[in-house]
Design brief:
This protein is mainly β. The protein is built from five helices and 32 strands.
Length: 465
């Protein structure tokens, strides 16, 4: 893998700077937030470096934070000012199918055209948005932002710090390495891993937070392919939510905290004046990526860390009579995949490579014409995701949050509802959910180069009787 080894994280030349507040989107008179997708420039290298040409929502990377109250309607008008079609997917939202923003649910929004997304998120939590067409390039160039659904009343007096974590593959002059998009070597390995790390579009920002209140960090991994091994140093941290869904608060005892592409984790820091250093473990080398400094005095009545209120998802999941679906995952370098089906044709590995495909799900490379399974409304579904490859995969299910039953034979430490599940090489993970959201839903690897090179499929859920 020649060029994977050449990659090194560029040395941060910019001194750590004060973090800018992310922009919040505001709605117009008609209640619509207008999100323009367009070329822009972003100061990824800091003040001393050249700005990086990017594609952005609302002119910034990340795009504006969309904030909506749980149970309230969100109206977003996408205006496409790119030179190519796009669309927006609302990652992790248990959304009405027509608003899911994939090629299964809408036509691409052509340059100069608009599309109105109107939906009511059922769950409070930390979610995000990004294109779902040519995503490997569009997301890498900067098209993504946070969607924060606020609890009607969380009861807590948090200081909220969203942190959107991304890596970039830049050339020395700070431009996005455009020559490497669609590279099959990259797709057959771990996907596009960058050489520059940003948090909220900045290198090593310093956030400030009052010492007299707990802090809620909302971490989102928007990288194309990097599985982030996060190290939280200097202050005890408590996990509050995974992929937007609350869990019983539990101290983060095991490091690193693994955050797969597409995933989110909400973390609470206690009141107090300790400084936090956030780092990513890059093969044993900790790379510091952000800091949180506390200001003012820590008061005695600082307030405890509280559990987040539950979302409208069941606690228990009855698996009796579940529909059992096998989803073997094959391909990639050192995987020995012989071939796969594309449409109605059986292709050899060579023929697949000629079409830019190196991965398959349940025997198909790319989207099959028919769903990989169909479930009647209300049926419980168990999917056995068997990773028969030498690479991990971050499997993302649209329209649902799923319970991880076990991964590599071990049950998880929590009963969280997740939308993105990391499956280790040569391991199996079983997920389950109740198919109560009708429509056509994608299921794919969120390592976007894997997805683009074949690792995507879809399933269908019937309407309520
Ligand atoms: Cu965040 Cu189908 O993607
Ligand atoms: Cu993958």
């Amino acid at each position: 893998m020649p060029h994977l080894d050449r990659r090194r994280f560029l040395v941060a030349v910019a001194a750590a700077g004060l973090a800018p507040r992310l922009v919040h989107a505001g709605a117009g008179d008609d209640g619509f937030i207008v999100l323009e997708a367009a070329p822009a420039e972003a100061p990824l290298l800091g003040k001393t470096g050249k700005p990086t040409p990017v594609w952005a929502f609302g002119g910034t990377v990340p795009g504006p934070i969309l904030r909506v109250r749980q149970g309230a309607e969100l109206k977003v008008r996408l205006v496409n000012r790119l030179a190519e079609p796009t669309m927006i997917h609302w990652h992790g939202i248990r959304i009405a199918n027509a608003m899911d923003g994939t090629p299964l649910t809408q036509k691409p929004v052509e340059p100069g055209q608009t599309f109105d997304y109107v939906f009511t998120p059922p769950d409070a939590g930390t979610f995000w948005y990004h294109p779902h067409i040519r995503a490997a390039e569009q997301v890498e160039r900067g098209l993504y932002g946070l969607l924060i659904v606020e609890e009607a009343d969380s009861g807590a007096n948090w200081h909220d710090i969203p942190m959107v974590l991304d890596d970039w593959w830049l050339s020395d002059d700070g431009a996005v390495r455009g020559d490497t998009f669609g590279n099959l070597m990259v797709a057959a390995h771990g996907g596009r891993i960058g050489n520059w790390f940003t948090v909220d579009g900045r290198s090593r920002p310093v956030f400030q937070a009052p010492a007299d209140r707990p802090v809620r960090l909302r971490l989102a991994n928007t990288a194309n392919a990097l599985v982030m091994n996060l190290l939280i140093k200097g202050i005890p941290a408590t996990i509050l939510a995974i992929d937007g869904q609350p869990v019983a608060p539990r101290p983060l005892e095991v490091e690193p905290l693994v955050l797969a592409p597409g995933g989110r984790v909400d973390i609470a820091l206690p009141a107090g004046s300790d400084r936090l250093t956030l780092a990513v473990d890059m093969r044993g080398e900790p790379l510091e990526i952000a800091y949180v400094e506390r200001t003012g005095e820590a008061s005695a009545a600082a307030g405890d860390i509280m559990a987040l209120p539950a979302n409208p998802l069941p606690r228990d999941l009855d698996l009796t009579g579940a529909l059992l679906v096998d989803l073997p995952m094959e391909g990639g370098a050192m995987g020995g995949m012989a071939g796969a089906r594309v449409g109605t044709q059986d292709l050899t590995m060579r023929q697949l490579v000629e079409r830019g495909l190196v991965w398959s799900l349940a025997g198909y490379a790319g989207m099959p014409e028919n769903p990989v399974f169909s479930a009647a409304h209300g049926r419980t579904v168990i999917i056995v995701m068997a990773n028969r490859s030498a690479w991990p995969h971050a499997m993302h299910v649209h329209g649902y949050h799923v319970r991880l039953l076990d991964a590599a034979g071990t049950a998880p430490a929590d009963d969280a509802w997740r939308d993105t599940v990391l499956v280790a090489p040569e391991a199996e993970a079983r997920i389950a959910f109740v198919a109560d959201n009708p429509g056509k839903w994608m299921l794919h690897c969120h390592m976007l180069e894997h997805q683009e090179a074949g690792m995507m499929t879809w399933f269908e859920v019937g309407a309520a009787a």
